[in-house]
## 1
Amino acid sequence: MKFFEEKRREVMKHIEKYMLEKMHEFLKPIDEIWQPSDLLPDSTRDTFFTEIKELQESAAGLSYDLVAVLIGDTITEEALPTYESWLSMVEGVDKDQHNGWMTWTRHWTAEENRHGDLLNKYLYLSGRVNMRAMEVSTQYLIADGFDIGTGTDPYRNFIYTSFQEMATNVSHRRVASLAKRDGDTLLSKMCGVIAADEARHAKAYKHFISKIFEVDANEAMLAFEDMMRKKIVMPAHFLREVGLKIGQTFGHFTDAAERLNVYTAVDYVDILKTLIDDWQIESMTELNEAGEKARDYIVRLPDRLLRVAERMKNPMLEYKFSWIYG
């Protein structure tokens, strides 16, 4: 185990220089990137209350499931204290470091923090949300934490974040399209800019893993296989409402996302296919027997999962969330 951890730290130190070189591509300068106030009604203007009325009129046209998915996405984004503390515990991340992986973790968290701020304020102004019920769910999600099966292993963690950032990009893009369809151009723009952030972050984590494959292909392949056998669980898989047990709301949230085609089992397969292509898994060489078996399992997995996905029925059971009025 000690050798395992030392090797991981050594690899993290090796790819750290590539991260620092490319950081300006993956994360935007703080003074230049959009902020929530750029997209929300300005309370200092005389038109503030008129803008809120227009926002509420547009929000009134959003479908019930879309509001539910938007709230679930917002709560997920607002659980950032959990994600920052999780990444700070990864092997090779020195919490006292000011020019390495902890720098990345802090700056990534800072960018992500804007997403929850923006969506939370939109939902508050929309007039459709029981904010206290939503806030309780947010506090529960942070307090309950999560178990995503990565431990402190950077390989598993970066595989997870590569997958997860791609998934959130899909989800926010689809919500943007549905909001536009329902006549809410402001919400559509908000989700569009958030999706663009997630796409950059996905590019970053995929780049980190590609560098790991260059120097430790066998262990990286085994980590990839292990994460796919466990299945990638969403950060909000412990989501709950007041009076419910841990995780009881998550299934209803994902059902709503499935009904709207915001994020489906087919999307899960498509993301896996993209990672296999981007990391050139099929052509990976210099693997030992265990690594080759892991590669073969990964390469065959999309077809297996797609057959399962095609047999799944679209969930029709509707659920009344405590978060939504009416």
## 2
Amino acid sequence: MAAGDAALVDFIELHQRLFVLTGAGCSTDSGIPDYRDADGGWKRSQPVTFQAFMGDDLTRQRYWARSLVGWRRFGHALPNATHHALAKLEQRGNVQLLLTQNVDGLHQRAGSRNVVDMHGRLDTVRCMGCDHRFPRHAFQSMLLEHNPVWATLDAADAPDGDADLDGQDFATFVIPPCPECGGILKPDVVFFGENVPRDRVATAMQALDDADAMLVVGSSLMVFSGYRFAHAAAKAGKPVAAVNLGRTRADPLLNLKIEQPCAEALAFLLRDRSAAGAEEIA
């Protein structure tokens, strides 16, 4: 067992009720790119803001055109070893709550049940007029029906279902309106410039209050919506551990930091399951 493994094992054994916060580093092994480099800086231009999406037709056309291409792979991404390891941790009874900054739903697909999707889910589309919601897969069919030529295009994957589709005339892209009221459709996720719903924050803060310690997995915590929980944990005297490659905003607050890929650092949780299965067979 590596030194990092041993330290993390000890941390989990010592703190049986963990508040777990996850970020993009959990999903990179599922083929979903992350946003930030090892120093916490942007790898690409910042994501579209809520204000730009709602206020500009061309911004919405560009967003949904790129999403049409990116969804083909994002919508079929599968959980990886990190998701399965955290599901195992919950099954062991060690997770008070898993709060994820990701919008891919892969924790739930891996078997985690006590999950709060802080920034929403990309697999749901929401009308900003009447609040009607329906599956993103259904909206993909609508987009393709209105834009058949765009179905032939491909581009490199970008974070959260986006694609690096540049050099196109996005003004020709047709966005279907809400089938209920004709309003503007938006993915049911929190964009930059939007606030995380208060009920999600309240649920997460209550879980943090009830937890023994906090474990951060695959997040630089550069966005305040995630960092606030590490700050609250440290202020309350709760130990904070992080598994992350590179700098995090909460580095001065950490009691333990494991700078390894998430799947590698958490592999012992899946080895435990394999060992138990071997013993049952024997």
## 3
Amino acid sequence: MVIDWGMTIRKIIVYGALFILFMIAIGFLMLMGVNAYLIALMAGGFLFIQYFFSDKLVLWSTGARILEENEAPKLHSIVENLAAEMDIPKPKVAVVQNDIPNAFATGRDKRHAVVAVTTGILNRLNEREMRGVLAHELSHIKNRDMFVVTFASFIVSIVSYVVYFVFTMLFSRDERNYGASMLAWLVSMLFSNTIGVIIINTVSRYREYGADRGSALTTRDPDALISALRKISGGDYNREDAMGLESAKALCISPIARSVMELSSTHPSIEKRIAYLERIKSEL
């Protein structure tokens, strides 16, 4: 397998920066005199909940239903064969009753993973294209990067708390100063919904490039994924279907809505992804 060192180095920089940001936040809390045991309890509690329950919440919120093998034998067969090629356990397979053509993988590790597809994607793609899409999702599982978005969200939560703590200290000398507390809360929410979103979305975009590469190298057929991306991107869908996938938007193979600015997008543009796949095709 040919390693894309440029993409690998950029991922290391992004994930390393994420970890450094986390350590700075924890260090600042300790510097401000917050009890180390309290920090460990809070951080560990947040991480435990997100690690063990975020996938269940995603499946529940999207209405995903686990499919038995006899319900979708062809789909199960594709997933089983791809999992064998990638040398990972076969994940569970689920379907989401949603007309938006999309797919996502979730789960805390390789042995507790689920690949979900919408009825919309099943109705639009042929078997070759579905193989490319499912190889993309299984690459997320193989790369262990499903947890990366969860970890990024966790760090943003911790840093938001630090921002709240700092602004409370700066503006409130009186514990009963509710105006200062409200200001601190608003600033922390502003951080989590601006800088925090940018951090999470940047991590999410690098995941997509890695999974696209994994799909191309596993199937040896980048054109299959290119064709699938062209079919499933850029459509106009009703608000109800879009809201149905909102909780999984960072995990989906295709963005649910186009974003004006790349920084606010969970995915690279389809044009950039296709150009990247074309480069991989030339390597193959």
